[in-house]
Amino acid sequence: MLRKITVKQFKSLVDLDLELGRINLFIGANGSGKSNILEAVGVLGAAANGRVDDEALLRRGVRPGVPTLYKSAFSSDANPKKQWHISLGAESEKNAMYDIAIWNPLGNPNSNWLFKTENLKLNDKPLASRSPRSNRPELNSEQGIAALKTVELEPGDAALALMTQLRGYSIYCPNTPSLRGLVPDVQTREPVGLAGGRLPEAIGELLDAAKKNSELEEILDEVRMLIDWAKDFSATSSVGVPLSPSAARSRQVIQFTDRYMNKGRNRLTGYDASEGALYVLFCAALALHPRSPRCFAVDNVDQALNPRLARRLLAAICRWTKQLNGDRQWLMTAHNPAVLDDLPLDDDEVRLFTVDRNNKGYTEVRRIDVAEAIQKRPDKGWTLSRMWMEGYLGGVPNV
Amino acid sequence: MSDSLRIALVAEGPTDRIVIEAALNAILTDRSFRLTQIQPEGSAAFGRLGGGWPGVYKWCKQSAERGNGKLSEDGILFLNYDLVILHLDADVAGFQYSTGNVTPVEDDLPLPCEKPCPPASDTTDALRSVLLSWCGETEVPLKTVICMPSKAPEAWVVTALFPNDVSVSRGIECYPEIEGRLAQQPKAKRIRKTVSDYRDKADELTEAWPRIATLGEARRFQDELLRVVSAETA
Predict the structure, then answer these.
(1) How far off is chain A from B23, nearest CA to CA, in Å?
(2) What single DSSP character describes residue A84?
(3) How confident is the model at residue A244 (pLDDT cuts 50, 70, 90)?
(4) Chain A residues with CB-CB distance to B200 below 8 A
(5) Quick one: A177 exposed, middle or buried, by C-beta within 10 A (0-12, 13-18, 19+)?
(6) Rounded to the nearest 10 degrees, what angle do helices A199-211 and A275-288 cross at?
(7) What pLDDT is recorded for position B1?
(8) Cis amide leading into B112 (omega within 30)
(9) In sequence order, what are the beta bridge partners of A353?
(10) Cα distances (Å, whole numbers) of residue A81 to A9, A72, A75, A85
(11) Strands annotated E in B11-99
(12) A106-110 contacts: CB < 8 A, separation 24 or more?
């Protein structure tokens, strides 16, 4: 698990140190820099895989950008050229650490970002490193050396685990057409693509796994509970299911059984179903599927969801992650205040961060101290969502 | 479409809602309705949120507070609803407040309040008074219906689905830990107390309502509901 991340000079993140938990929710105004935090980890993930280029960034759900946009360039900075590189780092709970400084000429950028420094350490012992002083001229600065070093590490090595988590990290941002199977997901992968492609297959695999796992079966019952208009859901071949001939057909589809309709006419596919149900299944697949990445981000996890459903879903994600997959780590952004009210923030592994920009435009991130919030709320009737909406937590726009 | 009865439900849990909705489908045959579960306001970060009977307690206290001490004066409750159903399992009569991490206030009648069973109504009468005390009331207010299956809605489920079960012949409204009977059925018939299994059986519960309504507390729920609905329609 990533316990700490550091970011310097990346977009609006001038100098950020963040202690992470297992579930990390970032709330803040539009444009405050929430997605930049998720992307910073994505860039580090690309580096951990050996190359930072547009293809590697897109693969992780990071928006590729020209160096002039990637590199912080604040007007208040007295010497905007003083640091030409972006610095990123991560530490695991098992004392493995990976950090990089990468750069790219602003005026004449390369297709690849170039490694300036790179360190992979375990318990402060260097396993792989490079720096301008120690660089041998033959080292290719487009290629990370830590990625090469990992081939020598034994399975179970904490440094290898950290690098594997970073490499597997992606930013998921599901959209309805991909979830419905109407358009192909450009970034497809197991169990689900970054835009939500392959959802029927993932749900089918999950249902199969539940047949041999009673704990998972019980959790899937909680998923059914979240889709209150349906009796059940399944994954099935698209052949023979009721689907408009003009709709694009994928090999498999999700099928819902509507609880209100007559038998024989009560089945509908993901093409026709409420999009909220698809977003719920998408999150369930990420939370529960055995082949989900260990560490990942979901941007706007609450999109398309009714506030009460969003609230229940976030609580369920926290519960499932703790119960079934203790080794899974979520970074999420959300905009719906209701999601705060079911978060089990008394668990230190569930962390809520507000994201704001200061007068210079720098993104600042603050973890909400629940004990302090309890102590300072005006009376017992105040909820966390109300405190956020009224501005007492920060993370709101000045509009 | 627009004349559907708008019903607010304060219930202990999601499977209870399914059972009550199935009952409503049987009882309100000539009237469409919209059932919405309402919940107490709160943040998990500031203390456990209301599931189970403590959630019903918390909701009642919040409603009474909005109504200057009485649920019946809670204006916002009837802004969008024609009536409210308060559900509480009769087995709550056997609990201490402390088991639900509830600190009772002065006007809350004491728990436990369990009486010898049979008859089930001695206990449910006592627990109804407790429930009403949470709401700042001494009588069931207008537009309010109490649903108090004895000892739990599973008594209704077993009656509907397994009419030959041993618990039915032994007085199911007083049968202890009735939930266990769901699993004590032949493998092909047994069900779990889960949303998916209950949803699967919801239509059967509705069809079997005449049999369920032979139970005292089910009949009381039906009669009180119809009385409130007819007053609402009049």
Answers:
(1) 16
(2) -
(3) low
(4) 231-232
(5) middle
(6) 50
(7) 40
(8) yes
(9) A26, A367
(10) 11, 10, 12, 10
(11) 33-37, 83-87
(12) A106/A67, A106/A68, A106/A71, A109/A66, A109/A67, A110/A142
SS3 state of residue B135: coil
Residue entry with tokens 């087995």: B91
What residues contact residue A104 under an 8 Å CB cut-off, 6+ apart? A67, A70, A71, A110, A113, A114
Distance CA B36, CA B1 (A): 16
B144-147 vs B83-87, strand pairing mode: parallel
Selected residue of B17, B36, B43, B205 to mutate for chain A interface (largest A Cβ count, 10 A) = B43
- Nearest 5 degrees, angle CA A278-CA A284-CA A289? 125
Q: How far is CA A68 from CA A9, A35, A112, A359, B106, in A?
A: 11, 18, 14, 21, 67
Determine the Cα–Cα distance for residues A383 and A377; give it in Å rounded to an integer. Answer: 9
**Is A277 touching B (CB cutoff 8 A)?**
no
Distance CA B125, CA B113 (A): 10
Residues A383-399 have a mean pLDDT of 86
Tokens of B139: 């009588």
Using CA atoms, how far apart are residues B217 and B220, in angstroms rounded to an integer? Answer: 5
Q: Are A258 and A267 in contact (CB under 8 A)?
A: yes
HSE value, Cβ hemisphere, 13 Å, CA-based, for A304: 19
- How confident is the prediction for chain A on average, in pLDDT? 89
How confident is the model over B93-147, as pLDDT tens digits?
Answer: 999 999 998 999 999 999 999 999 999 999 999 999 999 999 999 999 999 999 9
How close A81 comes to chain B (CA, Å)? 44
Between the alpha carbon of residue A50 and those of residues A43, A224, A320, the distances in Å are: 11, 41, 33
- Strands (DSSP E) found in B88-162: 144-147
Q: A360 φ, ψ to 5°?
A: -90, -5
Six-digit token pair at A34? 């929430």
Per DSSP, what are the bridge partners of residue A7? A16, A88
Nearest CA to A95 among A3, A231, A19, A233?
A3
pTM, rounded to two decimals = 0.85
Contacts of B41 in chain A (CB under 8 A): 381, 383
For residues B178 and B151, is the Cβ–Cβ distance under 8 A? yes
Which residues 138-197 in chain B show a CB within 8 A of chain A? 194-196
Task: Give the whole-angstrom CA distance, residue A80 versus residue A73.
Answer: 6
Of A218, A221, A370, the CB nearest to B45: A370
Give the 3-state secondary structure of residue A87. Answer: strand
Reading phi first (left if > 0) and then psi (alpha if -120 to 50, else beta), residue A82 is in alpha
Helix (H, G, I), strand (E, B) or coil at A359: coil
Identity (one letter) of the amino acid at A219? I
Tell me the three state secondary structure of residue B99.
Answer: helix
Q: Which helix (H) or strand (E) holds A157?
A: none
> Nearest Cα to A163, choosing from A239, A23, A50, A69?
A50
Do residues A393 and A32 make contact, with C-beta atoms less than 8 angstroms apart?
Answer: no
CA dihedral defined by B147, B149, B154, B159, rounded to 10 degrees?
-110
Range with the poorest average pLDDT among A92-106, A156-170, A238-252, B85-99: A238-252
Map tokens 């909701």 to a residue. Answer: B59
Cα distances from A290 to residues A223, A240, B193, in angstroms, run 16, 29, 26
